[in-house]
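Help!! Second protein's tokens look totally different from the first
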Amino acid sequence: MKAIEITRPGKPDVLRPGERPDPVAGPGEVLIRVAASGVNRPDVLQRAGHYPPPPGASDIPGLEVAGEIVGGDEQAMAQAGLQVGQSVCALVAGGGYAELCAAPAGQCLPVPQGLTAVEAASLPETFFTVWSNVFDRGRLQAGETLLVQGGTSGIGVTAIQLAKAFGATVIATAGSDEKCAACLQLGADHAINYRSQDFAEEAKRLTGGRGVDVILDMVAGDYVAREVGCLAEDGRLVIIAVQGGVKAGFDAGLVLRRRLTITGSTLRPRPVAFKAAIAASLREKAWPLLAGGAVRPVVHSVFAAADAAKAHELMESNRHVGKIVLTW
């Protein structure tokens, strides 16, 4: 099969088309003929040598695919309600930038009605991440307020739409007025340009001084202290990336007095059973929203797989709104 390989750690040009043996679906897995592969920030980190795949995962980058099931563990497929020939999208721990990809059956979801393979390939990584962190760890409820850092990222556009669909008020941050406008078009109630406004002060102002209930943070670093300062009583801060650095200082007294929770997670190394449980929740609660059009994929750019380096250049430029997808 054709695949995109990381020839050495480095800049986008280290991504090169190559050939690999066809993967074989193991116990509990299906084999997918890939039509499209999603591009995500962890792929960029892996390419640069900062995010190695977990033990047992393919060294080929790519965490999400969409395509057709062409084989696999029949019992696992039956248990997951899947069959050969079905169009699915899947979350994988690696190997997504390839013509064939083995995926755990429990991490596969049917392509929502009306969506293309490109649109479907943009879903798994962000939907699994947002569901696990905003709704499971962050316990966001209808009537609460969510602050999304980086509202136009793949994670951000998903978090905005899902939170609104489930009855939350959404405040999003972005790095330009144009991106703030995009957040509002996606359904955010308010958008803050973090380059020209203090997001913490704005969040408190927009909530009448009460603060926000849940924050989805991809920055960490010195953001943490400001986020702690703008959480409401019993607020929850969920950290899913550390683009601003791993060290953070904050007022622990606020944590005590306001009964705050600071938590976080990474999804890639979690066991299949954990991810399969998320998939089941998504199929029940989020997939009908996609099929009905209440939540929609946001695909900024599509590249041929051979142009994966250009896709990574775009991601690192931060010019995109939503997802970047490769096609085979």
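Here's the second one for comparison:
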Amino acid sequence: MEQYYKLFRVRELADNDEEFIKTLAETFLEEVPVDAERLKKAVAEGDYHNAYQAAHKMKPTVDLFELGILDILIEVQDWGKFEKRDLDITSQLETVINAVDLAIAEIRSDFNL
């Protein structure tokens, strides 16, 4: 439990209300995979606007669950925001997607979702 994500800030926010913590985990599982797919597609297509929006939307949740990739996600976000055409963001994107995938699997398992 909590190898690829951390619940410290989630527990603090939820005041240790286990039902609310589970609700936040469910919300993570509903939103983050969709946003991650949108981000992958946008980067693959060179769609800077959608890459920026998807990364920006993911930031608070990635930060709350402490996936340890916030700085890298911000690099991907800024690639889209500033249309950094001369920058290959592929490795940063892979790091983000890998961390998200690991956290998704672990949260599903930990919360039996």
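Reply: Different proteins will give different token patterns, so don't panic. The two ends are 14 Å apart (CA to CA).
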